[in-house]
Amino acid sequence: MNTVNRQSQKQNRSNQAKVNSVPSFLHWRFVVVVVAILLVFVGLGIRAAYIQVVSPDLLIKQGDSRTLRTRANPLHRGLIVDRNGQQLAVSVPVRAIWADPKAIAEAEQETQQKAKDDPSFNLQARQRENKKRWQALAEVLGQDVRKLKEKVSNPEKRFVYIQRQVSPAMADYVEELKLAGIYLRDESRRYYPSGEVSAHVVGFTNVDDAGIEGIEKLYNKWLAGSQGSRKIRRDGKGRMVELIESEEGKEPQNIQLTIDQRIQALAYKELKQAVQYYKATSGSAVVVAVSTGEILALVNSPSYNPNNRAGVSAHRIRNRAVTDAYEPGSSIKPLAVLSALEFGTADTETLVDTSPGWMHLGGNIVRDSRNYGEIDLTEIIRKSSNMGTSKLALSVPKEFLLDMFYNVGLMSGSGANLLGEINGIFSDRPRWSDFELSTLSFGYGISVTALQLARMYSILGDGGIRRPLSIIKPDAPVESERVISAQSTQQILQMMETVTEKNGSAEQANVPGYRVAGKTGTSRKAIANGYGEEYVNIFAGVAPVSDPQLAVVILINEPKGELYYAGQTAAPVFAKIMAASLQMLNVPPDDKTVSSIAVSSTSASGGAANAG
Length: 612
What we know:
By secondary structure, this protein is of the alpha+beta class.
């Protein structure tokens, strides 16, 4: 019995001990853990809400910087061609060499770390090899290796140009060097096949392919177009996963000039030789199609090579035919004669008394080289009489005379709108003395460009019809208006024809087989308080007289030596350019005397051949 009681008591104590050892769910450590977890989730929720709702811009920007890319569609600048389609400016593919200084620095750090981690790695050999490659890069680019490394030494930069517009062969060599952080990118460079011949007309672009001179600058927007772009999203492997937006660009436009490169090259060759032969400071030549006003050639000497402008001075780049104005001298004397013919104070039979070869006008003297006596209008032009043109100019109202200068475009732009073109220099004052009007009649007191003078002669050649000159091939005929009667212009052309005939002041301007009308102009250059000993020589004319096709102006600036008259310097150049240009354009000869002689010679040779 006692034994049973003891066992029962023992069992009760055991059950009581088990009840006391059961863990409580409210243990303080458990509470701490739960509270901590809850606080973490609450903090994350608050942070997520702040990032997503209150201030999401920063992360959006960072995400977009990793995934969004805007890619520009590649463009090649439009062509510039002459009237016959010959290329004057083209874009050729080249490449640019650039560096990522941060990538270069990281590559060096990786090399240093690899040397620490791998005892067998030869750090010195790797450094020597890398040094050789940098030296090779510097040599092929013609740069100093020390300065080259300094250029890419700042690891905070991510893009530095090493050299622009390198040839494909050079780019391939650089790529073979496999230098860390050195990359290539495609670009284009402008090339000018005609070189210095058309440099002043076409102009050139800078290293970023933007026009900065000539037609390249004037029509830069047309030639360059505008790049289209695509905004895309890419994944971590660089693959495009979304096209967000696309913007259409404007295709580059080709430009066709009125220039005939055959005539342009010929004119440049003859002008350059003349400038060198007469040891002149400079020269200009302009060839214009009379019936359309299209500029077929516009050249200057000295010129420059637009493909290699290293060391080229600014005076060579200047387009002198449109930027430099000179007193034209006797080359505008036909206007005084035309004024008298148009107003009616003279006709082709009128005689003008130039005796005794000089006269006083307001305390000043107007004189001829000698006393020509009583001469008609043709002789006034042929002998280039200052007395004759002065009396004719003073025989008409001042306003009528000045209007004649306006009508032929000597006091306004040519209409070609070339870069740097000026309107000449003319002081239109309310009161004019007789002496001022007299000097104006023989080309002093007014300064014009070679292009303005070419426009004047194209108007005379087209029977008194004025139209703007053009350098861009027009799609439709330009507007025109009559400013001089056809009868008067025909009469003045016949008078100017005597200038190039025997005993005229410019016999050397004669073109065999063609009737040529023109006028010389030899003027002294103005200096402070008067005129110096330097001359400007001009010859301007049209041909053939029976049906004028071309107007040509030659200007030789400051010839040195004994030959300083326009009939000796500018006239021979005119004859060569006019003759070759007419032949290139297949203009038939109109000098019947020369034609009949040629026909007779041909017939005689043909008869001899048949007899044989």
